[in-house]
């Protein structure tokens, strides 16, 4: 106890310093997300000012350019998140997009704790549902244009999905929208499919307002997960580890 008291003040100062650094990083990340959302809205307004035909042409040109750039310079197609105190295990992982998913050359996916949305730009204009082959299985996804030489996606999911709750449709005549229901609603996916690029789930920041939509038990579990994740980033014990320490102190006394 004498040694504990000796270093207690120093430890508390270190914890306060780390907490201040974490809050500063969170503030910067929040400002960056707000800027990205504002820029996205500005682009949407600009697109609405042109005709439907012009907008479709512009989008097709952007998609072709993005795919060409990605094939010629793949290292520039992925923005890797790096911090001074980043866990070495997370090195090389991508930073989540504003939807807590990832923007890739062939598709974009976003997620909540309960479901995933995948948006795939259609490679040809005027495609209909009957022109596509979309197969959603518990552990596998296949998306292809019929009679095409290769599928757009043909890979295993990272985790299981509920087939009966998963759907797909063509959105705005130019995007395939796939909605997937997660089996485990208490975990974040780091990638859509097992061989695809991985995001750093520690960088995910769910909207606090969404917690109010959950029932009491689920909300408590989510808040516990968020607390434990923050404790690990600060190098502090998780809630379960803290309980064990409290019990040990109690019996030692």
From TrEMBL:
What compartments host this protein?
Answer: Cytoplasm
List keywords of the entry alphabetically. Answer: Cytoplasm
Gene3D superfamilies assigned: 2.60.40.790
Q: Where is the composition biased (Basic and acidic residues)?
A: 55-76, 240-253
Location of region: Disordered: 1-43, 55-99, 228-253
A Gene Ontology cellular component where this protein is annotated is: cytoplasm
GO terms for MF? unfolded protein binding
Whether Translocase counts among this entry's keywords is no
Q: Does the keyword Cytoplasm apply?
A: yes
PANTHER family, per the entry: NUCLEAR MIGRATION PROTEIN NUDC, NUCLEAR MOVEMENT PROTEIN NUDC
Q: State what protein this is by name.
A: Nuclear migration protein nudC
- The species this protein was found in: Moina brachiata
Gene behind this protein: EOG090X0AH4
């Amino acid at each position: 106890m004498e040694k504990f008291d000796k270093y207690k003040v120093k430890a508390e100062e270190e914890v306060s310093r780390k907490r201040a650094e974490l809050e500063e990083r969170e503030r910067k990340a929040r400002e960056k997300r707000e800027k990205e959302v504002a820029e996205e809205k500005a682009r949407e307004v600009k697109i609405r000012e042109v005709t439907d035909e012009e907008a479709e042409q512009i989008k097709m040109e952007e998609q072709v350019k993005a795919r060409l750039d990605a094939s010629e310079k793949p290292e520039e197609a992925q923005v890797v998140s790096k911090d001074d105190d980043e866990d070495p295990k997370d090195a090389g992982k991508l930073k989540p997009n504003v939807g807590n998913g990832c923007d890739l050359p062939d598709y974009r996916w976003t997620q909540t704790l309960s479901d995933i949305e995948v948006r795939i730009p259609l490679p040809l204009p005027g495609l209909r549902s009957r022109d596509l082959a979309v197969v959603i299985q518990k552990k596998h996804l296949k998306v292809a244009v019929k009679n095409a030489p290769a599928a757009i996606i043909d890979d295993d999911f990272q985790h299981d999905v509920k087939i009966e709750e998963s759907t797909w449709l063509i959105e705005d005549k130019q995007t395939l929208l796939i909605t997937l229901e997660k089996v485990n609603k208490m975990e974040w996916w780091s990638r859509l499919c097992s061989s695809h690029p991985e995001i750093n789930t520690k960088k995910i920041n769910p909207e606090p307002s969404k917690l109010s939509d959950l029932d009491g038990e689920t909300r408590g579990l989510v808040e516990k997960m968020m607390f434990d994740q923050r404790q690990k980033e600060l190098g502090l014990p998780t809630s379960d580890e803290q309980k064990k320490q409290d019990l040990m102190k109690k019996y030692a006394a």
